[in-house]
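Continuing the batch. This is chain 6 of the set; chains 1 through 5 are on the previous pages. Same settings as before, nothing changed between runs. Recording input and output for traceability.
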Amino acid sequence: MTIEGFDGKKIEKEIDATGKLLKTKEFVKDMFGNDKTTEIDADGTKKEILTKKDGSFYEKKIFEDGTVEEKNQKCATCVAEVRKEKKNADGSKTATITNDKGEEIEETITKDANGNEVFVSKNKKTGEQTIKKIYFNTDGTITTAITDATGKTKATRSTLDGSKSFEEDNFKAVGEVPVNPLCTSYFDGCNTCTVKESIKGACTKKACRASSSVTKEKAKCLKC
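Output for chain 6:
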């Protein structure tokens, strides 16, 4: 059974011989003209599929137990990246990712003291670890900061829909330590501080002012 909506929305319902609803499909176009399909099975499983004009697609399946499975194919001929995520009892999440190179990556998702999401990923083949943090800015944009295995951080600010983005050369979020997030002890130029997930913790209480005999030095990570 198909139902046509006045807003261009189309709904299809699959019903068996007994009249039981098996699946509901909803078809719409987003603001960019891409096709978006939402499927809901009788068991509560929900699947969202976004097919773009360039042939790339994104698929997200949400199971009744909260497990999420995603597929992201960045171009029509590309190999899709597959991501499976589940929630843990402590509120954190764990995910297994198979990237477009066939490599398996383990990922844990937590939140830092400021409520920002922290993704710690480890490539099971190479052993390399990366840390990604996501910040929701007051101007409605999102900053994604990724620190690679060498400690180098690259930050990108983008709009919510991802249509516009640019690199932030001088990235520094409020309350963050502008050094390798793997750092566990940090010297801010005056005091030594503990660090956890790139957030400064307890610091020594030395007073460093321009008029003081104790002058500020260059900030640096003391221990990683």
